[in-house]
């Protein structure tokens, strides 16, 4: 169990930091949390490579627990437009994290015998896509208003040019696409620390 502590602490730190940083906008379609959250996939992949899928799932569950805690705290804090975390955001965040991270673990394990870069890259690309799709659909789509009828998400469902330049779509779609593109970019960037960490820590584990 002791060997899991670094992964658990790293995952919890990323989840908590991302829940804080998501409150601060970065341009029209992103928040600072979009830059920190994707590194949760790096932690999962490193744990999977070095300790196996069972250990990676434990780290994921620790991150899920940290996310639930953050969501609870957020529901108790009132901002300009109501609670910082609504029921839909809490549901979207929790389900997206758990489903995407477990998919990451499964895909990585399936590809672990391939070239060193294939497992972390493919698993992160697929799971990041699922994460973005689940979270933004659950949290903001007008079709799911029944989940929390008292939560006004009209600001997110109104039509706007996609990413400010494309065809009209609900504003939340631009938020989702922007978030997804950042995840894809950071999936490529994370290959370098993944390779370096495996080379250094792999020898110690072996």
Task: Characterise this structure.
By secondary structure, the chain is mainly alpha-helical. Helix content is 69%, strand content 7%. Strand 1 and strand 2 form a beta hairpin. The longest helix is centred in the middle third of the chain and has 25 residues. It is globular and about 50 Å long. The two termini are 17 Å apart. The mean pLDDT is 93.
What tags apply to this protein structure?
206 residues, mainly alpha, two-stranded antiparallel ribbon, two-stranded antiparallel sheet
Q: What's the structural blueprint in terms of helices and strands?
A:
Blueprint (H helix, E strand, L loop, with lengths): L4 H17 L3 E2 L3 E2 L1 H4 L2 H13 L1 H23 L2 E2 L2 E2 L3 H25 L6 H23 L13 H4 L1 E3 L6 E3 H19 L1 H15 L1
Antiparallel strand pairs: 1-2, 3-4, 5-6
Helix pairs in contact: 1-3, 1-4, 3-4, 3-5, 3-9, 4-5, 5-6, 6-8
Can you count the helices? Answer: 9
> Could you give a short account of the major beta sheet?
2 strands, antiparallel
Strand order in the sheet with the most strands: 1-2
Mean pLDDT: 93
């Amino acid at each position: 169990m002791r060997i899991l502590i670094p992964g658990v602490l790293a995952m919890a730190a990323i989840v908590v930091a991302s829940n804080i940083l998501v409150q601060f906008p970065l341009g029209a379609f992103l928040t600072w949390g979009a830059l920190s959250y994707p590194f949760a996939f790096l932690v999962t992949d490193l744990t999977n490579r070095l300790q196996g899928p069972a250990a990676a799932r434990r780290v994921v569950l620790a991150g899920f627990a940290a996310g639930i805690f953050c969501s609870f705290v957020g529901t108790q804090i009132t901002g300009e437009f109501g609670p910082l975390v609504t029921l839909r955001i809490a549901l979207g965040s929790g389900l997206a994290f758990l489903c995407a991270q477990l998919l990451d673990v499964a895909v990585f394990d399936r590809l672990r015998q391939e070239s060193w870069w294939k497992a972390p890259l493919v698993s992160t690309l697929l799971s990041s896509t699922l994460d973005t799709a689940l979270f933004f659909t659950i949290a903001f789509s007008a079709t799911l208003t029944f989940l929390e009828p008292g939560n006004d998400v009209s600001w997110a469902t109104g039509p706007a040019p996609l990413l400010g330049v494309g065809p009209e779509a609900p504003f939340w779609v631009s938020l989702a696409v922007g978030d997804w593109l950042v995840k894809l970019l950071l999936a490529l960037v994370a290959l370098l620390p993944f390779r370096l960490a495996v080379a250094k820590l792999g020898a110690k584990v072996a």
